[in-house]
Amino acid sequence: MAVVKRGPYAKGTAKREEILSVALEVVAAKGCRKASNREIAERVGLTQAGLMHHFASREELYQEVLRARDIRDHEMFFAPDPTIEGFLAVIAHNAEVPGLVRLYVEFSAEASIPEHPAHAFFLERYAWLRDGLSGVILRAQDAGVIGPAVDVSAAVDLIVAAADGLQLQWLNDHTVDMVARLRRLWDGLVAVSHAA
Amino acid sequence: MAVVKRGPYAKGTAKREEILSVALEVVAAKGCRKASNREIAERVGLTQAGLMHHFASREELYQEVLRARDIRDHEMFFAPDPTIEGFLAVIAHNAEVPGLVRLYVEFSAEASIPEHPAHAFFLERYAWLRDGLSGVILRAQDAGVIGPAVDVSAAVDLIVAAADGLQLQWLNDHTVDMVARLRRLWDGLVAVSHAA
């Protein structure tokens, strides 16, 4: 599947990767609000106009950093079939990449206003994540782990909400064990699902 | 307990209240990132320097909007003793004040970076909230609702995380029933707490 890229396209792709990586470093160090296109452009040796040639806006740039992360996470932890252990592995991995957690927490909050250019991206991402986690629950139900009394949609909302909220907590206090907390939530969902 | 305020102090207090209220309207309409001190100042009939006389910075202003909300919520729903129903009532009330939810979600995310001027405010607020919710769980335990097998600290983290994450979801989709989701979480925590 590996494609050997050459010529100007390969150069463009390499530059694009470099920009995504530097954008992440700048956000990790300064936060989303203080991070500037000017600094990102300078650090990759481009003018701001040159940077905008690769990404039309700050919002597109951040969105693409997060999209690249999702693709990697999906390949590493979720393929071929998502499981709760795969999801917890993504969360455990998050604790290794604080810059991405910071970008995700800040940028998803900022983009919650419908007029935001990345609003549609997050809605689409959320639908994708819901879909994956619904599959996790249905497969756990098939396996008899989760009982019949479960509202899949509500359970998914809750798992995503807890994962989002825990990332914010973890940014404030790196001793918060996100995985242990989510495992407890899962145990609670399992317990309630077997109730009469 | 009502104090009749007069003279310049009363004037200052009224202006302060007006600023907090207008700041909230501007954030509700534009989001935290696009809201500007200039617009807030204009709408309350002050120069930006005049606005800064009341609040030293954008960050102090937003922080004080949230602090005023917490004081009101606490009086309305939590005093004298916090209960889970009181907490759920705060969440239900949030759905009536989308501007506050937007400000809270965006500003708490932005402030997660340790260098942020409101970072200490959110840490302090979090400790206060943890304290209230720990009391909720311990009293529920005394009443026999929550069983012995509960890690109070972990349960509190999870409730706050879910409430935070659900507010973000609700901003994106007002049909998300935050209270029903949190009640399910509580039921799960109750179920697991009675496990052998």
From TrEMBL, chains A, B:
Family annotation (SUPFAM superfamilies): Homeodomain-like, Tetracyclin repressor-like, C-terminal domain
GO molecular function, one term: DNA-binding transcription factor activity
Keyword DNA-binding: yes
Domain of life: Bacteria
The entry's keywords: DNA-binding
InterPro entries, alphabetized: Homeodomain-like_sf, HTH-type_TetR-like_transc_reg, HTH_TetR, Tet_transcr_reg_TetR-rel_C_sf
Annotated source species: Microbacterium azadirachtae
A Pfam family assignment: TetR_N
Location of the DNA-binding region in this protein: 36-55
Protein name, as recorded: HTH-type transcriptional repressor KstR2
Domain HTH tetR-type: 13-73
